[in-house]
Amino acid sequence: MNELKQNYINKGKNYIPRTQHLDKQGHAKFVNHLILTSSPYLLQHAHNPVNWYEFSDEAFDKAKHENKPIFISIGYATCHWCHVMEKESFDNIEVATFLNQYFIAIKVDREIRPDIDNTYMNVSQLLNGSGGWPLNTILLPNGKAFFAGTYFPKKKLLDILAQVQNLWENKADVLNKQANKISQTLNQSKAISNQILNDNIIIKSIEGILNDFDEFEGGFGQAPKFPHESTLLLLINEQRRNPSENKLNAIITTLDTMASGGLYDVIGGGFHRYSTDNSWLVPHFEKMLYNQAQISLVYTRAYTLTKKPLYKRISKKTLDYTLREMQDTNNGFFSATDADSQNEEGIFFIWSIDELSSIFNQQELEQLKQWFDLSSNTNFKKGHIIRFKNINNISQKDNKIINILLDKLYQIRNKRLSPLTDNKILLSWNALMVQSLLEAGETFNEGKYTKLGINLANYLHTHFNKNNQLYRVSIDSKIGTLALFEDYAYLSNAYLSVFDQTNDKKWLDRAITLVNVMNEQFWDKKYHGFNINHNTKYLTTNQKEGFDGAIPSTNAIAYKVLTKLNSRIHVDDFKQQATQLLNSFAKQINQNPSNYTSFILGINNQLNGEINPIQTIYNGHIRTHSRFHNNQLLINLQLQPLWHINSNKPLQDSLIATKIININTNYWTINHVIYPQGELINLNFSKEKISIYRDKIQIQVILTNNTKQYHPPTLQLTLQGCNNKACLTPKTITIQPN
């Protein structure tokens, strides 16, 4: 215990213990083992009277030695209901006394150990049909769970603990039987799938999504509503391939309503985690890094689909918020900000009419009321949530005035007591930001985002690697916790995004290295697919994530990585593994394809080609980069040394000409195509000179839009790659620029 107290003293004078149990000098009366950690969430409980342990050998050995059940509580630092349960139960002497006497208590930060969270969330789903946080589970000393639930009020929690204690003392065989049954049921899911995907799986997935679409308020399903970014990314991808009014309506209705305010912070930018109501007005006010990364990507791609200025604004505002308020000085991004401040949820984000009247003069107040709904519809607790009346009625001129009003509110709001920032820098969540920044830079032609994306990738590569080990977490520049499968999958995908953007081979090599280690550590050689973690000590199941949750399915991202690698360097091992991975989830995907949207998106790209302004052909020997602006499409081709393609006029009938055709004639007309002048050379396989392109060339296409409603132009580029010895099979790729 002296070690715990010394660690408390070492925190220094600025450290504020989070507890109601203080002595006259303001010092915490209780210190438990969580004082030894750096996790912000665990430190929130370090001064509870509960004798908390981390998930560790020490805790499990103590449970076995004392023959006590284990009580595990899982949450995260910015979780509102975790705060509620901490205050009313875990900081309560009565609850703590009971737990300390009859249980071994363990606290887990789900963001640091999602593998532990996933294991016991599956138990909750099995027993209750639902889950959430805080997640509270009770296990045998060997790690097998027999009970799980979420938030419990103090009285309910004490009742549950008393019942379990009574059973433990008198009917332990009942608990053992329950735990073994749960473990057996969950482990049955490891069996290999013998199915293959249905031929119409993409259509079925889209149908399932649209059947769940809320036509009035947007989004999918009923409250609580989550952004479901993976679903939106699939819809946008499929809309670009096969346009339809119902898909477009689902995309636009959802994005417009989410952007109107409530879920979206119109004053500071950025999105809250989810909405408690159907109309996206009242959120749980925490902001997660993974939401900012994914939603900005959604709005960026929606802009390429529609060229709607609102979507460009929302994407940039979201990224700028993240860069301004969530970025560490070393380039990494913090994991989240809290919903609570001043011990109240959302108080930082709401405004009373009296306060607004004191901030603005009469003219400004009238302007505010003109564009924002300040009626009783937007009431929350003691004030209003700022929300647009009709976000689509705002002109560019209006935006200038609105920006002045919102900036004034932002400056005032910054003087309030800010919500807690969880300063963990998580490798996987930061990797999501890399792609979002790079795509924003490409789409909006803003180099700052591109540079920041590359800088972030470099930081992740250098900071989280130590002694040939990859780590998951950085707090105060100190890394810890070995990386999980999630980190490898997301980071390798980020590296490929940088490679595509820069054409710098070191990023491709880094991705391949990561995948090789990922295969060694996490690949299930018997049943295929990737396990969440290779260290399963005390975890009686090792699950594989296939469906999309708050973040994309890790196995789906790995599938994308394997197929991308195959298209860029053509390694049969990667292609075969991608097929095995997909087949291992085929049964689940066939049963409910709308829950596996990241897999479906990967399948769509594999079958029909990636929708990407940057594409690689002939195993990476030829690279195309398309840019579209003011109805002018520029297609830049870069060929590796000793490679060439036939020119637009190759001179010989047997050679395939490089040619552009328009396949979207309903919306666009090609006015003119300017091909470069071919270079006449002699090659071994031809007695006559042939006309070729090599090194770097550019094709310019002038287009006319035939409709008022924007649709991305879709063209096909046909070319034939050759080296000095022979010409290969011609390729036709789809060009659909951002």
Q: Can you give a write-up of this model?
A:
This protein folds into 4 domains: 189 residues, Glutaredoxin (3-Layer(aba) Sandwich), CATH 3.40.30.10; 329 residues, Glycosyltransferase, CATH 1.50.10; 72 residues, no CATH class; 122 residues, Thiol:disulfide interchange protein DsbD, N-terminal domain (Immunoglobulin-like). With 738 residues, the chain is of the alpha+beta class. It is built from 24 helices and 30 strands. It starts with a helix and ends with a strand. It is globular, with a radius of gyration of 28 Å. Strand 25 and strand 26 form a beta hairpin. The longest helix is centred in the middle third of the chain and has 18 residues. A 5-stranded mixed β-sheet has the order 1-3-2-4-5, with helices on both faces. A 5-stranded antiparallel β-sheet has the order 19-20-21-27-24, with no helix packed on it. Strands 15, 16, 17 and 18 form a 4-stranded antiparallel β-sheet that branches. Helix 10 runs parallel beside helix 12 and helix 21 packs antiparallel against helix 22. InterPro entries: 6-hairpin_glycosidase_sf, 6hp_glycosidase-like_sf, DsbDN, DsbDN_sf, Ssp411, Ssp411-like_TRX, Thioredoxin-like_sf. This is DUF255 domain-containing protein.
